[in-house]
Task: structure prediction
Amino acid sequence: MEYLSLNGKILPEAEAQIPATDPAVAHGLGLFEVTRAYRGVPFRIADHLSRMRRSATRFGLRLAPGRVGEEIAELCRRNRLEDAYVRITLTGGGNFLIRTRPLERLPAAWYRRGARVLLAESRRDPAGILYGHKTLNYLENVMLRDRARRAGAADTILIGLGGEVLEGCVSNVFLVRRGRLVTPSLDAHILPGVTRKVVLGLAARARLRVDERTVGADEMTEAEEAFLTNSLVEVLPVTRIGAGRVAGPGRITRFIADEYRKTVERETGR
Result:
């Protein structure tokens, strides 16, 4: 039997009910967050809830979470999970749902030798009002992610109308160029990733030079290194971008990945 939390109450999944009239059912109105729990301890849960609160304010949704960290720990215990995928959902009707699942790990070879990513065939207008938020209207991202996985790739990189790199459909993008860490600016209405924020903090403490700016698509295959970030994959080296190749995984990518893992261990005690 699997358990979840609905509006602060932990119950068997089969007993959880959300009204058919909830706007999330009718129109996909709602928000979600995905994070990772390490032996029951969610990493940077406050940052995830802060991002959800910002989006809730933007779209006029009511968010009043309870003891989310404690609920996640209890769900991991009841569901017998150590490393866990955690999804937090806020529906347009005000229902607050937390689910946990076993973490599905990417191939270890991708971390050793680098992963492949695809380039989106269509261009995205970053001015769209939903971009930069994790809304339940997520069909485009899911389809692009699934297309990438079927092709043996980790993600699909989204490109803006001007040919600029935006983000992966489920990740943020980092490059290393001439020894500098480069990533698209939040001004492009990309998701303000929690892992992205951690990586930028690690880079600042290590006194790495960082450029948050507009990144041309042609820069990706000119980079010395490239990697993706999100809460589940952590820091994933990339060595193939579309038909092009990138050297690596390189020194800076390895350093960031190691420091990220140390941060997780320090903050979660795991």
Q: What stands out?
A: The chain has two domains: 3-102, 108-268. The helical segments are 23-27, 45-59, 68-78, 108-113, 139-150, 194-205, 251-268. The domain at 3-102 is CATH 3.30.470.10 (D-amino Acid Aminotransferase; Chain A, domain 1).
